[in-house]
């Protein structure tokens, strides 16, 4: 059995290849049981989460990701998300690889957002706003830049110093990255708004949105969490990564439904329908689009297969 490190995963999963692999995966038949989602009490202020995410392709591979999410880990200089991925032979069940889980997760999550953006954002999108300064943020910036001509990026975080430090690390001559502390102005000036936080309160306000923008909501993965307000959902053509995940875990979707500004029938499509051409994405230039993801084991298995092939 191979043990594949974080550095090896990052090298294997360039965004152009990974985005295309996910596009193909959503067009194919994967078996994906409902993931196990468990709350884990801790001695800290926040409840932790244990996720078990299995998936398989008949006679090819079986995979399962085991992930923990400890929101208070930042206070200990540790990542909030940690875990491992186990890849098994689909014909014999024998273990093939033990893969670094956090790197696989951030890469496939960012690639899924970029895949959605390839259908939903304007092709001429150049300005990206990144809300959040955690491990997902640099990945989302790179992934979105792989599908759109992004050349100007603003980063907003509750801690301006962290946003500024990240911006300086990513900034280069042909790819301008700066930090901002004016969230409303940054939202209004962006073509693509990507949000990856553990927020329980809306950060993206619908009244700030401008015609033609695309909103990418990644971070809030529980019904009691959200990154957009009801007005943002009301103004946008709404898509999800999977309908099952969106209707069971996505606070941005569930709270908007509870408020009466969205219904399940109003969800315009998911990644299955977009990649298979069953639903159209952006319909016109000035339309506001919104993509909400909570993740699916299809993405993990597709990414793990690509890593295994290349390592």
Key attributes of the depicted protein:
ornithine cyclodeaminase, domain 1, six-stranded mixed sheet, alpha/beta, 24% strand, Rossmann fold
How many domain modules? 2
The total of helices stands at: 11
Strand order of the largest sheet: 9-8-7-10-11-14-12-13
Main sheet properties: 8 strands, parallel
Helix content: 25-40%
What top-tier CATH class of the largest domain fits best? Alpha Beta
Shape: globular
Structural class: alpha/beta
CATH architecture of the largest domain: 3-Layer(aba) Sandwich
- Name the CATH superfamily classification of the largest domain: NAD(P)-binding Rossmann-like Domain
Q: Using DSSP, what is the number of strands?
A: 14
What's the overall average pLDDT, rounded? 94
Approximate strand percentage = 15-25%
Which helices and strands occur, and which strands form pairs?
Elements: E1 2-4, H1 6-12, H2 15-27, E2 36-40, E3 48-57, E4 61-69, E5 81-89, E6 95-100, H3 101-120, E7 127-131, H4 136-147, E8 152-156, H5 160-170, E9 176-179, H6 183-189, E10 192-195, E11 214-217, H7 230-235, E12 237-240, H8 243-246, H9 251-259, E13 269-270, H10 271-275, E14 289-292, H11 297-310
Parallel strand pairs: 1-6, 7-8, 7-10, 8-9, 10-11, 11-14, 12-13, 12-14
Antiparallel strand pairs: 2-3, 3-4, 4-5, 5-6
Helix pairs in contact: 1-3, 2-3, 2-11, 3-4, 3-11
């Amino acid at each position: 059995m191979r043990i594949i490190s974080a550095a090896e995963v990052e090298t294997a999963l360039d965004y152009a290849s990974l985005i295309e692999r996910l596009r193909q995966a959503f067009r194919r038949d994967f078996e994906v049981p409902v993931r196990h989602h468990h709350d884990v009490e801790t001695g800290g202020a926040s409840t932790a989460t244990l996720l078990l995410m299995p998936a398989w392709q008949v006679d090819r591979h079986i995979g399962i990701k085991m992930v923990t999410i400890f929101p208070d880990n930042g206070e200990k200089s540790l990542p909030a998300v940690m875990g491992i991925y186990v890849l098994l032979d689909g014909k014999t069940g024998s273990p093939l690889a033990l893969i670094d889980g956090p790197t696989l997760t951030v890469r496939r999550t960012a690639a899924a957002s970029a895949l959605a953006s390839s259908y939903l954002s304007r092709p001429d999108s150049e300005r990206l706003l990144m809300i959040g300064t955690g491990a997902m943020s640099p990945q989302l910036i790179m992934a979105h830049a792989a599908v759109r001509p992004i050349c100007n990026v603003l980063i907003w975080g509750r801690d301006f110093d962290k946003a500024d430090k990240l911006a300086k690390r990513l900034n280069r001559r042909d790819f301008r990255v700066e930090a901002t502390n004016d969230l409303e102005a940054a939202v209004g000036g962006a073509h693509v708004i990507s949000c990856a936080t553990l927020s329980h309160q809306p950060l993206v306000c619908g009244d700030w949105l401008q015609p033609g923008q695309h909103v990418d909501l990644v971070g809030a993965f529980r019904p009691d969490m959200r990154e957009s307000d009801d007005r943002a959902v009301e103004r946008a053509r709404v898509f999800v990564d999977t309908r099952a995940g969106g209707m069971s875990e996505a606070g941005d979707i569930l709270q908007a439904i509870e408020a009466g500004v969205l219904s399940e029938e109003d969800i315009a499509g998911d990644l299955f329908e977009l990649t298979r051409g069953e639903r159209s994405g952006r319909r016109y230039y000035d339309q506001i689009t919104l993509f909400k993801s909570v993740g699916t084991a299809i993405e993990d298995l597709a990414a793990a297969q690509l890593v295994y092939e290349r390592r």
